[in-house]
Design a protein that fits this description.
- The complex is a heterodimer of chains A (255) and B (269).
- By secondary structure, chain A is α/β, with parallel strands linked by helices.
- Chain A is 35% helix and 24% strand.
- Chain A has ten helices and ten strands.
- A two-stranded antiparallel ribbon of chain B has the order 1-2.
- Chain B is mainly alpha-helical.
- The radius of gyration of chain B is 23 Å and the shape is globular.
- The chains are: A alpha/beta (255), B mainly alpha (269).
- Chains A and B meet through α2, α3, α4 and α5 of A and α10 and α11 of B.
């Protein structure tokens, strides 16, 4: 199962205008782990994600997926292994029909039509969206769009799922359903997010980025309880780990 | 902004019409595209002083709309919206071309008026047939039919993307206009200068989005070609559809049916 490993070593990157984005990032994620990538806006999360599927090539350091370093030759295989779900489903769903969009990846992999069909339908079934298959994406609700976006990636049977803010813009119920859905996948998951409560639900490990560097990497529950670390990184404890605003603020029980 | 928003819903309506299930909807998209292209070619080939010859051809769009259960009023409204562009082209014909071609006793009709009528008729027929085609086929099916018939990917991909993102672009523009309207009081802030920078904004946002979409496509193995999954076979009935209509168009082009009808009627009387 070595192809499920993500290894980033001394990764550095600055944008063409000179803005440094990553400043020597190191981590290793193994098979089946569910990892949250947290950090303030501009900490380098998105830039890091763009390295994981070879959209950006490391200026210094290396990114390896399984046994392969990311190079031009391995790009196709890497992109099949690492399924990437973007933050805005309107970027992810670019074809006029949901079915075609989910079938886009498998078709490009050159699979036979029957296999494409079977994969498309089972990916849609997995996210509970088979009934949407003939609808145009612009007629879906935000929650439906998100589910379908995930299906477009699942249809390529990736071993690693990379997600950018999967719960943004969702209503509480849709968010809950998404968290439930993601918890059922046994893929290696890398989730960049500001939704700290979701991290608590989904991720066993958290990596905290600050100014393009990893400042903490460890068990999610410990990191989410470390107020000083979170404060310094522009983050906050998950609401569920904060004191109850009613019992802890109200006057102490009279007894 | 209401008008832009509602016209977007209207495009959605065109999509809804295309998901109906009638004999016309079931005809293979390629066959419908070919038939319509031939129809348009025949309509265009008519002499500009012969608007009467065009009249019988109206049967094609009318038949498609009737059997395909497409409301006439909807297509008419769309034609009306597009009409100023075409009519402005023909506007000067009556002024420039004053040779009398038709003498009706009291007054004579100049060649300009006849060619004006001919252009208008051609517009109604070709645009009507095109809209009817989209309404009973669906835009994506037409694009995939085009690419199956060998139209280069660059064109069909463009078409698909324009159709997909016109909604997103429209929504983005609508949001910007709303945001501006809410912060401009009276006529202040509604001038052209603001428009300039808004359009620039929109362009930049569009370019950003285009980059993200391209990235999303690359992530799923895009190699410059959109491979269409849905495979359909041309059936015998599709062949009859194409042969029947093309035969009819050819006949109506070669024989001036209205003139013949006029002569026969004249003889009867």
């Amino acid at each position: 199962m070595s192809h499920h490993i993500v290894e980033v070593k001394e990764l550095k990157f600055s944008y063409p205008d000179g803005t440094p984005a990553l400043n020597g990032v190191n981590f290793r994620i193994t098979h089946g782990e569910s990892v949250a990538l947290v950090g303030a806006n501009g900490a380098g999360k998105s830039t890091l994600l763009l390295h994981l599927n070879g959209y950006l090539t490391p200026q210094e350091g290396s990114v390896r997926i399984g046994d392969m370093p990311i190079t031009k030759k391995t790009l196709k295989q890497i992109r099949q292994t690492v399924g990437m779900v973007f933050q805005d489903p309107d970027d992810q769903l670019f074809l006029p029909r949901v079915y075609d969009d989910v079938a886009f990846g498998p078709t490009n992999l050159g699979l036979p039509p029957d296999e494409v069909r079977q994969r498309t339908l089972s990916a849609l079934a997995l996210v509970g969206a088979v009934h949407l298959k003939d609808r145009p994406p612009y007629k879906l609700s935000a929650g439906e769009k998100r589910a379908v976006s995930i299906a477009t990636v699942l249809s390529m049977s990736p071993s690693i799922l990379v997600m950018d803010e999967p719960t943004s813009n969702l209503d509480p119920k849709a968010r809950r359903q998404l968290i439930h859905l993601l918890s059922e996948f046994d893929h290696t998951k890398i989730i960049a997010t500001h939704d700290m409560d979701m991290v608590l639900d989904l991720c066993s490990r958290a990596i905290v980025l600050r100014g393009g560097e990893v400042v903490a990497d460890g068990i999610a529950r410990d990191i989410l309880n470390n107020r000083d670390l979170l404060d310094a990184s522009g983050l906050e404890k998950p609401l569920r780990l904060q004191g109850c605003p009613i019992c802890s603020v109200a006057s102490p029980p009279t007894s | 902004m209401g008008s832009i928003e509602s016209s977007f819903f209207d495009i959605g309506h065109l999509d809804a019409l295309s998901s109906k299930d009638t004999p016309i909807h079931r005809v293979d998209p390629r066959v419908k595209v070919l038939t319509t292209i031939y129809f348009i070619a025949v309509v265009i080939s008519f002499n500009k002083y012969d608007p009467a010859g065009l009249a019988p051809l109206v049967i094609y769009p009318v038949a498609i709309m009737t059997i395909g259960n497409i409301p006439f009023s909807y297509i008419m409204k769309k034609l009306l919206i597009a009409s100023p562009f075409v009519l402005s082209v023909a506007l000067f014909n009556p002024i420039l071309d004053r040779t009398p071609v038709l003498d009706l006793g009291l007054f004579s009709v100049s060649g300009g008026f006849v060619s004006f009528a001919s252009i208008a008729a051609k517009f109604v027929l070709t645009a009507g047939a095109g809209l009817a085609l989209i309404a009973c086929t669906g835009f994506d099916s037409i694009c995939s039919a085009l690419s199956k018939m060998g139209v280069p990917g660059a064109f069909t991909i463009q078409l698909i993307f324009v159709y997909r993102y016109i909604f997103v672009l429209g929504e983005e523009a609508a949001r910007m206009v709303r945001a501006r309207a809410l912060r401009s009081f009276g006529n202040k802030g509604l001038g052209m200068t603001v428009y300039g920078s808004m359009i620039g904004q929109l362009l930049l946002r569009t370019m950003d989005r285009a980059q993200r979409i391209h990235l999303a496509m690359l992530c799923r193995g895009f190699d410059g070609e959109i491979h269409h999954v849905a495979s359909s076979k041309i059936r015998l009935s599709d062949f009859f559809f194409l042969a029947g209509w093309s035969g009819l168009f050819t006949l109506l082009r070669l024989y001036n049916f209205p003139a013949w009808l006029g002569r026969e009627l004249g003889r009867l009387i």
